[in-house]
Amino acid sequence: MGNIGGVALVLKLGGPGALFWMVLTGLIGMATKFAESTLAINYRKIDDAGNIRGGPMYYIEMGLGKKFKPMAIFYAVAIAVASYGFTNMFQTNQCAEILNQSFGVPRIITGLSLSVFAGLVIIGGIKRIGKVTAFLVPFMAVGYVMGCLVVIGNHIEIMPSLIKMIISDAFTGTAVAGGAVISIQMAMLQGVRRACFSNEAGLGSAAIAHAAAVTDEPVREGVVASLGPFIDTVIVCALSGLVILSTNVHVTSDLVGVPLTAHAFDTVIPGFGGYFVAIAAVLFAFSTMVSWSYYGETSIEYSLGKKYITPYKIIFCILAVLGSIWTVTPVINFSDIMTGLMIFPNLIAVWLLAPQIKSQAKVYFKKLAANEFKTY
Prior knowledge:
Blueprint (H helix, E strand, L loop, with lengths): L1 H13 L2 H26 L1 E3 L5 E3 L1 H9 L4 H35 L3 H16 L4 H28 L4 H14 L3 E2 L2 E2 L2 H16 L5 H6 L7 H30 L1 H4 L5 H9 L5 H32 L5 H17 L2 H25 L1 H16 L7
Antiparallel strand pairs: 1-2, 3-4
Helix pairs in contact: 1-8, 1-10, 1-12, 2-3, 2-7, 2-8, 2-10, 3-4, 3-15, 4-5, 4-13, 4-14, 4-15, 5-6, 5-13, 5-14, 6-10, 6-13, 10-12, 12-13, 13-14
């Protein structure tokens, strides 16, 4: 949803130049994602049930020592709370908006539906719903990218000047969006914020999932993880931004978030935004909610213990409904606050453990160059 609705928000609030800072942050994010996921494999635990647990709270405590455990607990609490807004309420908020616009579905119905289905998976353990979503999401993602290419191809003659304008506005602060002059500081701020929202690099959240990877090579997993920001932000977010800017809807329309992106598609491919993007948004939102509930569950188990996992899940589902009826501004502001609280302890740990990552990377790539790894 950060790739669809987040880009629309960044262009409304930060102007075209913000897209430059968003993409640049995505490139830098490849390095942080590499570091986080390498550390996640280095420092992970297997619980009594055989489940692998890992992530920033584990590499903070295990990598830096017991004296840093308060910082690890702070991170765990921050990501658990962040899961409520960052990927729960924001997801249902944007879904409710696009379904209301496209099909007239009441916002509360969308919130209740997503809450119930998410609850069936994360509380009821009904994995079939999650498997169906996991099967459909890649196809919807490919369809979305194809739609972007069609719209961009329809405006191919203005692409060189559009890209030049994006770069120029990033450093001049002269971009105009919605009738207001955007400062360079605002463009940079919004670009960095929405990039972090899109690919999660620097937040450490994805490291919780990468910790469960079946591999004995931490650096290899780090390399795999570094592809995330590149695909998420450098490619998909850039495509979404070009779709919006080439159709000029960020200036001519009062819509924000996912509805603005959908409207941009509809100007070239009638019905694509209102139908395909709307359905894709629901699937993307649902899959994100389920994955982030796992991040929150892992964090709650680390900081408070297993007995608090079920209450966490119940609150998660309740807040999904609340997110659907709120306006987008308080939802996104709450999400940004939680993002900031996660970044500080995580990046401090990554910085302190950087020499270890560098040493491992040298050894790994030396072995790779010498063909010492078995291939299949």
